TrEMBL record:
Function in brief: Plays an important role in the biosynthesis of the phospholipid phosphatidylcholine. Catalyzes the formation of CDP-choline.
Catalytic reaction list: phosphocholine + CTP + H(+) = CDP-choline + diphosphate
Pathway(s) this gene product operates in, as recorded in its UniProt entry: Phospholipid metabolism; phosphatidylcholine biosynthesis; phosphatidylcholine from phosphocholine: step 1/2; Lipid metabolism
InterPro entries (UniProt xref): CCT, Cyt_trans-like, Pcy1-like, Rossmann-like_a/b/a_fold
Biased composition (Basic and acidic residues): 318-329
Coiled coil: 196-230
Stated name of the protein: choline-phosphate cytidylyltransferase
Entry similarity comment: Belongs to the cytidylyltransferase family.
Positions with biased composition (Polar residues): 1-13
Keywords: Coiled coil, Lipid biosynthesis, Lipid metabolism, Nucleotidyltransferase, Phospholipid biosynthesis, Phospholipid metabolism, Transferase
EC number: 2.7.7.15
Renumbered residue ranges of the record's region Disordered: 1-30, 275-329
Length: 329
């Protein structure tokens, strides 16, 4: 393992110098090319927690070339345990992550100087939790790069991990089994033919139907609650809404009545001839104008009665003259 010395003229990670034999490697980032950052892991059931850690590694420097190493199935099953996805599936998932520039398959479990030199790696990015190496002594696999000042810490995303996802599947195991049986998978495909008989399957189906029924009841209860809230809101605001409507309606009726009255007055004024004086001015005021108009057109009740009685007298006189004439004959 390389020895480490410190440069007293600078601060931070860039002060560490790794000395391997007679060659000294300064751990400060290069300025004439992209900084080559390496991140490794298993990346089983690739999720957004993985993507965020790779994003942090990619953004470690303004100009970064991100290499991602992924261990194969043999190494992973030996030191960590069985995976859900195969090595090729995990490699392909990484290739489709936008933060990754290059994928290194069959990555080693422990990083050494030779690996860093072969891939011209400047820094190694990972979270700060210790991971056991292959010695069985509980040593950290990133102890070497931490000592030589080439380690860039990334932060884990809380609430999401491959183990959490697997625990969700295990927790709802029966539901996933029944779902896949309904989709056409056989018992042999699911590996459940030896311990799930027909009676158990019926019980599982009944439980699933009860659960679905409970969910539907809950949805209906939420809808009823929403309707009640809307009804209460309507009752509280009904008086205010009705009063506002009546106020607007009354205002509209008033405006319409005023417009009709003005229109009638204007038409009456146009129909009545106005007398002009010799100098072109009106000879009557508005009050005199309306008085003459109504007296002329409509007349009074007394005039009507006088005309009626005059006509009656004329008729009687005419009858009397005719009668005298007949008597004389």
């Amino acid at each position: 393992m390389s020895n480490v010395t410190a440069d007293p003229t600078t601060d931070g990670p860039s002060t560490a110098v790794a000395v391997s034999g007679s060659a000294a490697i300064q751990a400060s980032p290069p300025t004439d090319r992209p900084v080559r950052v390496y991140a490794d892991g298993i990346y089983d059931l690739f999720h957004f927690g993985h993507a965020r850690s790779l994003e942090q590694a990619k953004k470690s420097f303004p100009n970064t070339y991100l290499l991602v190493g992924c261990c194969n199935d043999e190494t992973t099953h030996k030191y960590k345990g069985r995976t859900v996805m195969t090595a090729e599936e995990r490699y392909e998932s990484l290739r489709h992550c936008k933060w990754v520039d290059e994928v290194i398959p069959d990555a080693p479990w422990v990083i050494n100087q030779e690996f860093l030199d072969n891939h011209r790696i400047d820094y190694v990015a990972h979270d700060s939790l210790p991971y056991a190496d292959t010695s069985g002594a509980g040593k950290d696999v990133y102890e070497f790069v931490k000592k030589v000042g080439r380690f860039k810490e990334t932060m884990r995303t809380e609430g999401i991990s491959t183990s959490d996802i697997i625990m969700r599947i295990v927790k709802d195991y029966n539901q996933y089994v029944m779902r896949n049986l309904d989709r056409g998978y056989s018992r042999e495909d699911l590996g459940v033919s030896f311990f799930i008989d027909l009676q158990q399957e019926k019980r599982l189906r009944v439980n699933m139907r009860l659960k679905k029924l409970q969910e539907r009841v809950k949805e209906q209860q939420e809808k009823i609650q929403t309707v009640k809230m809307l009804r209460n809101e309507w009752v509280e605001n009904a008086d205010r809404w009705v009063a506002g409507f009546l106020e607007i309606f009354e205002e509209g009726c008033h405006k319409m009545g005023t417009a009709i009255r003005d229109s009638i007055q204007e038409r009456l004024i146009r129909q009545i001839p106005r007398k002009k004086l010799e100098n072109g001015e009106d000879d009557d005021t508005d009050d005199q104008f309306y008085e003459e108009y109504f007296d002329h057109d409509m007349g009074s009740d007394e005039d009507e009665d006088e005309r009626y009685y005059d006509e009656e007298e004329d008729v009687e006189e005419e009858k009397s003259v005719k009668k005298d004439a007949q008597d004389n004959k």
